Amino acid sequence: xxxVPIGVSARHIHLSEQHIEQLFGEGYQLQxxxxxSQPGQFAAxxxxxxxxxxxxxxxxxxLGPARSQTQLEISRTDAxxxxxxxxxxxxxxxxxxxxxxxxxxxxxxxxxxxxxxxxRHIHFHTDDAAKWGIVDKQLLSVKIDGERALILEGVIARVxxxxxxxxxxxxxxxxxAGAKNGDMAWILS
Amino acid sequence: xxxVPIGVSARHIHLSEQHIEQLFGEGYQLQxxxxxSQPGQFAAxxxxxxxxxxxxxxxxxxLGPARSQTQLEISRTDAxxxxxxxxxxxxxxxxxxxxxxxxxxxxxxxxxxxxxxxxRHIHFHTDDAAKWGIVDKQLLSVKIDGERALILEGVIARVxxxxxxxxxxxxxxxxxAGAKNGDMAWILS
Lengths: 189, 189
Fold this sequence. Notes:
Two copies of one chain form a homodimer.
Chain A: E1 2-9, E2 12-16, H1 17-24, E3 32-35, E4 42-51, E5 56-67, E6 71-73, H2 76-82, E7 88-89, E8 100-104, E9 107-111, E10 115-118, E11 121-125, H3 126-132, E12 139-144, E13 150-160, E14 166-170, H4 171-177, E15 184-187
Parallel strand pairs in A: 1-14, 2-5, 6-10, 7-10, 11-13
Antiparallel strand pairs in A: 1-15, 2-6, 3-4, 4-5, 4-8, 8-9, 11-14, 12-13, 12-15
């Protein structure tokens, strides 16, 4: 069976350039704290506060670089705490999703939409996908072993020569499986 | 395939009689807020605060009646918030688990052990188990369908003529599966 490393995504936010400037000041550039598994992606040194109808998170990590649309990714557990009911979506598919208020050191922005629970997915480099006979958008069953073993169904394959092999799940999924960042999972089909 | 209703357990606590008295006062009796799916079990009107090394929860629901040992059941997400690393255990198996501080209106108690992440399990009435050929302690694979479909492995069968059919999972597991209280799951094997 083909093995894939697990990347656990804690709540995080992608910001548009416009929102970076509104939150951090004109011409502001995000600082790189740490490179992520996907080439060119990084955890920024900066965080923002997010404020929902029922609660807030004070330090939500920004992931860079800037994107065309601002998108906040939270777990369903987080969603209950802030009082929102975001749908499970693929990254970038934010049409009709709830909004939220963002607070940075230089200002505050209320986005009309952009809050999602990220759909679990695996990034495959084109070469890995070809070798394993996996195509972009394919839905996979993936087993995470251990004392809380489970099989995730409908894991979306995303294939690109810009990607490195990594399965992205959120903290609810990781905690339900007793898995942590860097553990391995097995693609069943 | 055999269907079983899902009962989602949010964080909760079972208290010994001694701890009820220390937290609420001498001779105190828990008030019934709501009967639970298992005969004789109830959600009490009372809550306690629990305080761990890194955080606290102010209103943790007490489930009654009193038990021989105090036991706090939290999700792994909760465990990170309070700063503990409890093992996944069956109810009652608290030997060597972390302790925590409990605060009630009449006093405060620090338990030396008793914090667990509950192992997922299904309560079967003896008749259901017999009909389906399931025995006590059997490990089952159970599918939860939907847009976050998954298969939980190693779900422990607990069989008694005192039980009503119900699968107990925690909020991490429910959120990972996109499931809510009263949804149905399927026993695969």
